[in-house]
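We both want to read C-alpha cells more fluently, so let's practise on a single case. Would you supply a protein for us yourself, any chain you care to pick? Would you write everything just below, so we can both look at the same thing?
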Amino acid sequence: MQMKPAGERACRRNRLRDFALYLLISIAMVCLALGLARTSLTHDELTRWGGLAANTLFLFGFFISQSREAFTNWRFWGLFVLLLGAHLAVFIALLISIQEWRLIWFAGMALEYPLLVYLREMMMTWLSSRSSDLNVNRRK
C-alpha cells in the first residue's frame, strides 16, 4: 500500500475541517432564521439589530480571513477586539439614537475595511521593525 505525502493528508484534513465548519454555520443560520420567525420582533428591530449583526459578521469575518499571517500574534487579536468593540459601540449608539434606520445605511460599514487593513498593516510593520531592532541590539 502506498503512503500519501503528509502535505496531501494535511490538505484533506483542512478541507474536511472547513466543510464541517460550513455545515455548522449553515445549521446555525437555519436555526436562527426559524427562531426569528417565531419571535415578535418588529421589522424595524430586525432591520437594526439583524443588519448590525450580519454586516458586522461579514466585515470582521472578511478582515480575519485576509489576516492569516497575523493569526499567531496575540497583539493582532488584541487589536481585533479593540476595533470590534469600537465598531459595536459606535453603531449601537447610532441605532439607539436615530429614529428611522434604513438597511442600506449599513453599506457605510464598507468604509471601515480600509481603516481596519491600515491599522493591521501599521501594527505588523511596527512589530517587524521592532523585532529587527531587537535583533540588531542583541548582536552588539
Observations:
- Helices lie at 6-38, 43-65, 74-97, 112-139.
- The chain has two domains: 1-39, 42-139.
